[in-house]
């Protein structure tokens, strides 16, 4: 063999293996890039625990941030979702029954079972925290975070949007009834609730006004913009990736919630043992139903639809839970209202953290399924072509 053959330029040079520190650095950089939202959540919680908006401006801040953040998220969804696909997903009534039954009936029953077990020791848990756990279990699915994490998991985003709108439309009717039903069991912790009177008119008016202005109207406007200016929408949301602002809006929503909780000193009113229990049971509750929802879904749904179920079924919203905490009961103190909200608040942040982490596995699972389908299609096409050539 000549020297020219030995030094032929066609021989590729093998890349040098990465050192261990370089591998660790690459892994850290990948995690930061992939889970920047989770890191942002931690930063938001730290900031809100140290500096809060003055009490006199809390109500204004809460309304402004909630409306603007949720409106932006659903406006972006309206601009980026195909109308035909959205309507097709509204027609999937079996999916709606499957997801909403899990979210309202099964998850609330699990929450009531957990509360019943925790209440066996009357000296362990604060009664208002137990009521708060029931409140949380009876809420409809989360709104903006579901859409965000479904998109990150490469799931069926239109189906998630549909389930969010349906769940939060029927929630104001179903959630109060479920809460009343579970609290009617006569357990010792319900004795702290004063005798109640009155209806749900104020609750319905407030909740439907918020959902109409922050979900349905922005979605409709986004769909109109998409139909009227398709090239502009494609350039802004696909090429410029302005859709990332939805994640920033979600972080601002989380900030205003924790800012309110720290501002009212709700956390300092709870015993450490009770807080540890709430955190533990929240993680177990969410993780358990996440697994159950996936196990039930893969039996009859494809992977993209399964992701939508996994994001919607175990998740809960604060948008209805917080108004319910001070509209469902009258003649209770601000501290008692705050204690009802604590389990819902902790569930909100922990579910978002766990959902954000789950997107890593879900995304790989969905992508692997699509590659397999593509490979099967190519193989079937090759076999068909081979049969055609033989004939």
UniProtKB/TrEMBL annotation:
Query: Its domain of life?
Result: Eukaryota
The UniProt transmembrane annotation reads 36-53, 65-85, 97-116, 161-183, 203-225, 237-255, 275-301, 313-330, 342-362
> Any keyword Plastid?
no
Positions the record marks as coiled coil are none
- Keywords assigned by UniProt, alphabetized: Membrane, Transmembrane, Transmembrane helix
Name the Pfam families for this protein. SBF_like
Keyword Membrane assigned = yes
Q: What is this protein called?
A: Sodium bile acid symporter family protein
What is the organism field in this record?
Answer: Knufia obscura
């Amino acid at each position: 063999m000549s020297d020219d053959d030995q030094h032929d330029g066609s021989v590729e040079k093998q890349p040098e293996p990465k050192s261990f520190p370089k591998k660790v650095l690459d892994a850290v950089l990948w995690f930061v890039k992939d889970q920047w939202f989770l890191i942002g959540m931690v930063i938001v919680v730290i900031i809100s625990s140290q500096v809060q908006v003055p009490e006199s401006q809390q109500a204004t801040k809460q309304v402004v941030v909630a409306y603007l953040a949720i409106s932006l998220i659903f406006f972006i969804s309206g601009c980026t979702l195909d109308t035909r696909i959205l309507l097709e997903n509204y027609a999937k009534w079996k999916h709606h029954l499957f997801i909403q039954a899990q979210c309202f009936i099964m998850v609330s029953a699990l929450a009531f079972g957990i509360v019943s077990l925790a209440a066996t020791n009357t000296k362990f848990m604060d009664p208002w925290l137990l009521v708060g756990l029931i409140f949380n279990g009876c809420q409809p699915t989360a709104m903006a975070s579901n859409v965000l994490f479904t998109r990150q998991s490469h799931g069926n985003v239109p189906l998630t949007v549909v389930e969010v709108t349906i769940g939060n439309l029927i929630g104001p009717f179903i959630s109060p009834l479920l809460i009343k039903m579970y609290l009617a069991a006569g357990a010792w912790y319900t004795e702290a609730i004063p005798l109640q009177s009155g209806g749900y008119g104020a609750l319905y008016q407030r909740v439907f006004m918020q959902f109409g202005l922050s979900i349905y109207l922005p979605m409709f406007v986004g769909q109109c913009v998409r139909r009227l200016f398709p090239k502009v929408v494609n350039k802004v949301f696909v090429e410029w990736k302005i859709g990332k602002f939805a994640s920033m809006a979600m972080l601002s929503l989380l900030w205003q919630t924790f800012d309110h909780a720290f501002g009212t000193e709700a956390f300092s009113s709870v015993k450490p043992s009770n807080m540890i229990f709430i955190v533990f049971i929240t993680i177990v509750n969410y993780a358990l139903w996440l697994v159950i929802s996936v196990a039930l879904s893969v039996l009859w749904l494809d992977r993209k639809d399964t992701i939508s179920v996994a994001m919607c079924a175990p998740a809960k919203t604060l948008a209805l839970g917080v108004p319910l905490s001070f509209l469902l009961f009258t003649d209770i103190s601000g501290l008692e209202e705050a204690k009802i909200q604590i389990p819902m608040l902790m569930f909100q942040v922990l579910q978002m953290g766990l959902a954000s982490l789950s997107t890593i596995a879900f995304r790989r699972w969905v992508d692997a399924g699509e590659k397999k389908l593509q490979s099967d299609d190519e193989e079937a096409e090759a076999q068909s072509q081979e049969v055609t050539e033989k004939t």
